[in-house]
Amino acid sequence: MLSKPYFSLLLVSFLSVGRCQDDEGIYKVGVGIGDITGPRAGTPLNGFIGWLQAAGIYTRQYARAFAVESVTSGNVVVYITCDMRMIDHSLVEQVVIKLQRKYGEKISVKNIMISATHTHSGVSGFMTNSVDGIYEAVDNALTSAQLGRMYYTSGVLERVNENRRREGAYLRNPQWERDLYNTTVDVVMDLFKFETLDSTPLGAFNWFALHPGDFNEGGDNPLVSSDHKGYASLLFDYKMNPGKRPGQGDFVSGFGSANLGGVYTSWEEADVPPRPQPEDPDVTPRLLRMKYAGQRQFDHAWALFENVENHNLVTGPIGYSHHFVDVHVENVPHFNQSSGEVENVSLCKAAMGVAYFREFDPEGELWEIIRDLIKVPSEEMTQCQLPKGVMIAAGEMDEPWAWLPRIFAVQYFQIGTVSLLGLPGEFTTMAGRRVQRAVKNVTESNVILAGLCNNYINYVTTPEEYDYQAFEGGATIFGKNTVPLVTYWMTEMAKAVKEDDPDRIPSGPSPPSFLDLVRTEVFPAPDPLPPLKFGSIIRDAEPEYDSATDIEISVVFSAGSPRNSGLRKGTFFIVEKKIETTGRWGVWRTDADVDTLFHWRGPEIRDVEVRWFLSPDMEPGTYRIRHFGYYKLTVDGHMHNYEGKSREFLVK
What's this model's pTM, rounded to 2 decimal places? Predict the structure, then answer.
C-alpha cells in the first residue's frame, strides 16, 4: 500500500496532466498573513470622533488573505480581511502596484478585494505599514497556492448581535419584506474551508455581521487592538497552529465583516462586567466584554469548521467583475417595488447629515450655525439629500483634497457555486439583504456579503430607512438611492460573469490618489532622559505566583516612546520560560498574544507596563519578562535601542 505522501504526489501528478477542472472542485488555493500594525503611540485611533491617541498594544493588526485560482481558466481571485476600520482606494492602488511588480497583470484592482473588519482600535493613517503587510499576506497566499479544495458551509449564531434600529428605522422597511426574515439582524455566519488534496487544512474564512467596537466602547481605550474579530481569529490560529506565535503559523483564519451597519453586540449582562465609565483607567472590563463577542464567534466558526457533514464542495468557474461608480454622472434603472414601476435613479454629492452628529450631541442647538461656518450647502445638494438635513457639504468641498469621495468601487467574485459581494461601506441589515436577494435571483447561488471593501462610503441604508433619518441615515452620504444603484451594478456584474462576458461591464473612472498629500512617515517623538535609565525596572514582578489564585503579572519599565520603534513584525516584549534541562530561555508570549498587553504611560510619565494574564491551566515553571525599545533624546538626534529585564519568577 502506498504511504500518504506518495499517494498525494501520485494524485497531483495524475491530475496535473489535464483532468483538473473547476467542475471537479479542484483549484489552486493558498492563504497568507501579514502584520499591519501602525505606530503604537502618539497617533489617533480610528473609530470615534475625538482625539484619543494610541498608547500601547493589546493585539496586533493583521491582514489575512486567501487566493483561489482556476486550473481551467487561470482566473484568480484574492480576498483580504484587514484589522482596520476602513479601506481607501489609494491603499488598494499601492498594494496592486507592489504586487504587479512580481505578478504582472495576474493581479489588478478587478480581482483583489480588500476588506476592513472595522475595528475601532486601529491606528489612523500611515499606510506604509498597511501596504507592506497586505502585500506580504497576498504574496504568501499566491506563493503557497497548491492544488486543493474548498468547502462552503453556514449556520445560525444567535444572541450575539442586535440591530440597534430594530424599533425605529428598520420598521420603515415594507412589511412584506420584513416578513421574509425571522430576525431583525442577520444571524447567519458563512464559512469557507480550504484544504490540500490530501485533506490537510490550510485556512478558514468566515463572514458575520457584528460591529467591532467593543474594546474601545465609548472611545476611551488607547490600546491598539483588532477587537473581537481579530481575537476570534487568534483563537482559531492557536487551535490550528500549536506551538506557533500569532502571525507565524501555516494555517490562516479570517473573521470578515458583513452588513454590520447599526449591528452591535447583544450582551448577556450576567456574563460580562458592567460597561466601564470613561474615567476608569482599567481596561480589564473592556477586555472581558470584547472577549465575550470574540469567543462566541470563534466557537461557532469552529463548530462549522468541524462539522464536515454539512460542508459543501465548491465547484465551478472562478470569475470576477469590478466597476467604479462616478457619483456625479451615474444614472441607472431601478424597479420600485412599492410603485411597481421602473424609474431611473442617481446619487447626490456626498454630505453628512445633522442626524449623524446628533448621535453624539442630541441637545445641540447650534448645528446650522456651525454648518454655515464650514460651508453652506448648495440648493441642489439640499434638495437632493432630503429629508436629510445637511450638516457638512463634503461633496462640495475639495480643499486641501476632497472631503468625501466622488468615485467608489463595487466588486463581484464568482467562486464556483458561491458569490462574494464587495460592499463599499457599512450596509445596514436590510440594505445588505436587498443586494443579497437580488444577486441570488440572478445566480441561484449562495451569496456572501463582504463589508467595507476597497473604499469607504460610510453607512448605507435602504431608502425607507434613509427617510427615518437616524444616525445611519445621516451618514448615508450619497443619499437615499445608494442601495438601488449598488444593487443594479451587483446584479449586472453577476449576470456578466455568469454569461462569461465580464468585460462588458465598464471599468468607470479611477478615483484620484491623494498619497502625495498624505504623510506616511512616522515622525519620532523625543524622549527626555527619565529619572531612571531606559529599561530600568520601576515595579518588578513578585518572586512567586499561583496560577490558581493570581490573576495577572505586571512589570513596569522606564521606557522611550513606542512611536520611535519600527517593530511592525517584531515585539515590544517577550515572556520567556526557562527550559529546566538546559537552563536556556524560550519565548512563551509576545505582544501579539491575547493574554498580554503593553501600555505606554507617557510622555509625561515615560514608562510602560507589561501585563500577563494568567490562566488556571498555566504551565508551571520559571519565567521572566524582557522589554525592548528605542529612545531619541531630540527630534534630530540618534536613535538608541535599550532593553529591560524583570527578575525571574516562579509560576505554580
Answer: 0.94
